[in-house]
Amino acid sequence: MLAAEYPSYLEMHQRLPVTAWHILRGVTLTAAFALIAVLFAAPPTGLIAWWLFILPCVPLLLMLAPGLWRNVCPMASLNQVPRLLGFSRSLRVPRWLARNAILIQVAFYFALISTRAPVFDHNGRAVGALMLVALGAAFVGGVIFRGKSGWCGTFCPLMPVQRLYGQTPAVVVPNSHCSTCVGCTANCLDFNPRLAVIADVQESSAYRVGQLKVFAGVFPGFVLAFFTVPNSIVGAPAHLGVATGTFYLMAGLYMLVSLGVFALLDLLLPVSALVLMAVFGALALNLHNVLRFTTAFHVAKPVWLRVVEGLFVASITATFVVRTYRHEHRVAALKEASTLGRADVPSDVRRSPADKTSEVRFAPTGPRVVVPTATTLLEAAERAELPVEAGCRMGVCGADPVAVLDGGQRLSPLGADERSTLERLGLSEGCRMACCARVLGQVDVSFDLTSIPTLALPRVEVVYDRTVEHVVVVGNGIAGTTAADHVRRRHPDCSIDLIGEELHPTYNRMGISRLVYGRSAMAGLHLVEAEWYERHGVTAWLNTLATRVDRNQREVVLGTGERLSYDRLILAMGATAFLPPVAGIEQPGVFVMRRADDAMAVRTYAQRHDARRALVIGGGLLGLEVAYALHRFGLRTTVVHRSRSLLRGQLDAHGSELLEHYFVGLGIDLMLGNAPQAILDASPLALRLSDGDTITADVVVVCAGIRPCAGLAAEAGLEVRRGVVVDDHMRTSDPAIFAAGDVAEHRGVTDGLWPVAVAQAEVAAANAVGDSRVYDRQPRRRILKGVGLNVQSAGEVEGEPGDEDIHFQPTGDELRYWKLLVRHGELVGAEVFGTWPEAGPVFDAVAAHAHVQPLLARLRNGDLTPLAVAAPTAEPDALSGDRG
User: Fold this and answer.
1) pLDDT tens track for 299-324
2) How far apart are the first and last CA of the chain?
3) pTM: predicted TM-score of the whole model, two decimal places
């Protein structure tokens, strides 16, 4: 709930495209260098512009719309140039330096401001030189360090002021610099502008909070000292020879008194440190506003103008303090409400005041993170910046198992699908899938599973067919591995041969886009290790082709010339990437993205050819995930999609519009309603479009759908249409041969979805060895993964005449939206855009065809809580398309 009310910048509306921000940054940079030129050429004019018109606006801008300043700040813009042009070393700031960053920034700030009177107030060239040094340092920081940490996060003298006045912005302007967060700074003002400082004060270490308090505490004392001790320092440079030492001594005393008052009030007053910091920040700004008019540059203003300006600043700062107080209490209320009314929270936990938030500790040396109750372990790990390779986020892929060291009773109950995945991985009940387990209190977990005992192979007690002695599975993806696993669960004696064309053991195909921009290659993607095959009594034939099926002899002929006999054959070859009939599509520099090797080939080619621009043909789920990966790799990316809307048929028109807005905000260009005509053999490559335009790119990735690998079945004489035709038992036209996954066509549909492949493989394996199972198609659940934003849908999207369309979008700037389709009182479809705590129960309800007639009044008012409370519980044997 907290994440939903206070979304990150990735889930906010970008009012301007990235190109517009680049233009604005160019304007401010040009203006900065123009001011420097004026300061050198005509110092009096430059000083008046700088001290009287430009600098006084910065605190007010930081208080009202700090995001605007952070988007167009000239130093931040120069800091990001090396990343944009691809020559940043992107090093992480050393831990000791990051720990003391606030102290460094505060020291720089006071050192520079205290020399304003003796140097910068009267020397335009000195101010110009200072600006050049600051801009140069920001640029160098961007060359060395990752993200904004090289300047904004560690050295910028204005950062303490930004954190003090940017606590609770009146107008939120989302970050447009870091289109993908690299985690360079703790509680970054850009990542979550409304919550950053609140989180800093509430959740940071005492040392970091102490640094924040010290600056807020001494700030009013410094402002007062600067303008009053002694007055001659600001007003008469000739007297500086005798006054400088006195000034620094007295300024130190003023700051100590101010800090003492802050500490005393912090102890005695019933207000939080955050609110007290806001009060001291407001006091400092009002002191600056009142005192500066009587001293700076001997400018005498009329009394009425000074009164008007004073009242204006006072009203702005008073509103700022009230706003901070309200925001803090709003956050506390949301945390307290996060456990109320949840169906998966036990009643003894649901209303416990101690569990407004939950703590997850990642052992043995990992971080501790405090999250809203009912957050998944996966979300907690991502918040802690742990390198987790998550896939479907539905508990089926097996990519994110964790060992629960303590507090297992404070996790949501283990579901049937999660249990099945853990059994496939051979893990005990001391483990959970991070994407499924929700925290309901303090929990200690570890991603290191080496100390977890291996379970005995799970068994399904059935009367199996003892005449089935040899089972061959063709395909080593999730369907093939699941089929082999479930054959062994039911039949302990038969031989199992598993043939895989790829040389890798089964891996998380949904995570391959990470191979484009990540540094660890296949590490973390494997779902089973080599010993899995031996432990299950499976003979693995990796990097091996099945070239022919001899149905008469019941043999599979391998590319090596060997022949494997079978009593039952399960076809799980999956699908290949579809290549549309576009001239030039097979030339170098053009890739598909279906396998791990495809992703690694794109990364290799881009590096060897110094690629800067990329084209993605296709705007479906995979196309958008690939576009995001290429963008994160640093390529200027364009998506060409023949439809005029993104994910047509999977999102409604409004959802497609929101998604388009999101990708454009990231800086990914979209060319919708355009079909590729030809890829011209040129350097760089050129794509000619149906409207006559031509786009150039260094790399082209085709994501135009998939085609079932049904050739082997067709040559064997099996019934094949688009895929291998199967009945409800996943049996083909040959009773001894079954098919599952992307290669199978069930009731005229080839799904191409991971959860469907798992469910079909279980049914095929069961029936192959004498069990009796029926595959029951469930509403399809589609998830857009790995793009920094939660987008899901299930069941129907557009509906039929007579259906009720219930939808809700909060006011504000966040990218959040949901929609339900109700037919005759039954929930037949749902769409969720952004962060909604009730999303899981909503999709469970769609899968269960839940009757929601009694809940319609509340749903129409935008309240999803009734679905969360009344969420159906899946039966252990249910074969749901929403698996986990």
Assistant:
1) 566 788 878 888 999 999 999 999 99
2) 21
3) 0.76
